[in-house]
Every structure is written in C-alpha cells, then in structure tokens.
C-alpha cells in the first residue's frame, strides 16, 4: 500500500535515531585495551560531559522551501539531509564518494540521492505538520516527554563528544536545539497526538466496540501442544510424529486440552502464555502456525508441521475476558491507533503543498556532510 512506502523513509530515520531509547546512557569503550592513545582518552573524557544545558542557538538562514506555506530553512533542510544520508549509507565508507549516491537504492528504481531527498522532504513535511497539529490542538509537552527530550539532547551531546564539541557542531549547523532534537522525539509527538485524537473524549475516539471487532475479525488466539522435531539421536522423526498423533487422538477423544498442554507441550511459551498466543496475519510466529490459526474456527483442533515440529492447535475466542485480556485489549487499541494515524501521515505527505523551492534546488547535495 502507498502509506507503507511513504512511511518507510520515516521508519529508516526513526530506527537510526531512536537508539537512545533502548539505553539511558552511552556504553563505555572497552577498558581492556591498554594501547589507547592520549587523544582517545581525552575524547572519552569529553564524551562523559553530556549533561544538557540549554544553549541559545538560532537559525538565521533563508527558507529553502515552504510546506503548506510554512518555511523550512536552508540549514534545517541540510540537517535533515545529513541525517538521512547517514542512515541510508549504513556506515558504507564509499558513501563519501558521489558515485555511491548516484547508484540505485536496493529494491527501488530510485538512486540513493533521490531516495535521500525524498526522505528529507517527507521528514520536513511530517515534522511541520506535527508542530502545527500540536499547536492547533493546544497539546502541551508532558513531564515524561520533557524528560525524554532532555535524554535525547544528552544522547546527541554524547554522540558529538561532549558539550564543547556539541557546541561547535551546533554553531556549524546553524539550527535551533528544538529543530535538532525534533526527529529524535517524533515517537513522543506521535503518541501525544494519537492520545488526543483517539481517546474517549477526543475528536475521533476508538471505541471498545471497534477493538472487540478487530479482535474478532483480525486476531487468532491459539493454544498448542508442541512436539519438537528431534535434535539428537534419542528419537526419530517417525517416533515424534507418532507421539504427536497419539496426543491428537487423545484431544479428539475428549481429554482436557489444557491439561495435555501443561503436561506435554515442549514449547516453554505454553507456560508463560496461559491464555494462548494472540496474532494477526502480520504476526511474528512461524508461518504454518499462523496460517492454520487464522483459518480455523473457534473450538477447532488441528495439527500442522512447521520447522519446529508438530503443533496440535486449538482455537479460542480472542474476545473472551481472560486474566490477560486487559493487556491484550490495550495492545489492540494501540495497534488500531497507529494504523489510523498512519493514514493521517499519508494524507499529510500526499496533500502537502511544496513551494518556493529555488534555494532548496540550489543546495549541493553531495556537499552535505553525513551527520555524525
């Protein structure tokens, strides 16, 4: 679908930038190397000086172009390009050569240069619309979001090598700190907008009926007895298959399925997911398991073979109020929210009016350095 292609470039940026959310501090370089140079030691010391102190940076550069009438400065657009170039190059040293950017991007009819420019344009459109939407709905930054923003700033400062090198970078980049950090905290901004739009009191609320309907139509809830394929000489494929067939016969003969799961399933997840596995067609489970689960009727029992072994499966009602149902319900509601919001982003990009591009077109793409 079109929205998936449009969101791809955003995902590329988000994945490359949101690394800081998975670790609250930068890991120290391995101290076991006794041959660190003095210069390296100084840089490591500087990198620990990452406490965020606001700087009064301004962006005095002219507009590169406008998005729906709102200006995007030359310096800011170059920043977007530099970050996108770093992401697309994925550490390839040949990215320092112009020829790299003239080559075709994998699985695309566009060059790396065209892909980078398209992605930078889309990021500019999205961030512009995010800021406009936050202002229109008067959504203020929560204390948690503010803390994440400070964490993002300290992460960036650490990447630059400490406050002094960060300051030099900012002077060279010529953008404001809010613009610098904006791509790093897009997920927070998205979440704030979705919460406003889709909450019970929002303009486009997601109802409990919608969530239950999605659970009923889109999700399978499966419990299974897994008999693994043999991994050593203690048993043969034929013996394990025969054991699986015996268990299937016992299930079909009326024995309690859940008792058999608890006693015989060789999947550790059977114990940690007592309510079963919930998934959609885009789930992450083995394909044969998902295909069978989605095609089964509630209450049906079926055995399938996958790369793991034999799955003796039983389908349950995903809308049943189990012990874990509230958590599942929240996850499904969040998934609906994200899907609905993806169409909002699609509309932002599809309907964006880009104007006054003379200065944007004059930017020397190859001269824009990779962000580092």
Question: What can you tell me about this protein's structure?
Answer:
The chain has 372 residues and is α+β, with helices and mostly antiparallel strands. The chain has two domains: 2-25 and 35-206 and 338-367, no CATH class; 220-316, Chitinase A, domain 3. It has helices spanning 2-17, 38-47, 74-89, 98-102, 112-136, 143-160, 163-173, 177-181, 186-198, 208-218, 237-252, 257-264, 269-272, 287-295, 325-351, 358-362, and strands at 63-67, 70-73, 220-228, 277-279, 301-305, 309-316, 354-355. The strands form two sheets. The chain has a four-stranded antiparallel β-sheet, sandwiched between helices. A three-stranded antiparallel β-sheet has the order 2-1-7. Strand 5 and strand 6 (309-316) form a beta hairpin. Helix 6 packs across helix 7 (163-173). The model is unreliable at 1-9 and 11-47 (pLDDT under 50).
What's this entry about, in short?
This protein is an alpha+beta fold and 372 residues long. 53% of the residues lie in helices and 10% in strands.
Strand arrangement, largest sheet? Answer: 4-3-6-5
Order of helices and strands: HHEEHHHHHHHHEHHHEHEEHEH
Rg for CA atoms: 26 Å
Cα-to-Cα separation, first versus last residue? 33 Å
Determine the fraction of residues in helical runs and give it as a percent range: 40-55%
- Our count of domains comes out at 2
The number of helical elements comes to 16
Strand content: 5-15%
Class derived from helix and strand content: alpha+beta
What's the β-strand tally?
A: 7
Q: Mean pLDDT score, rounded?
A: 87
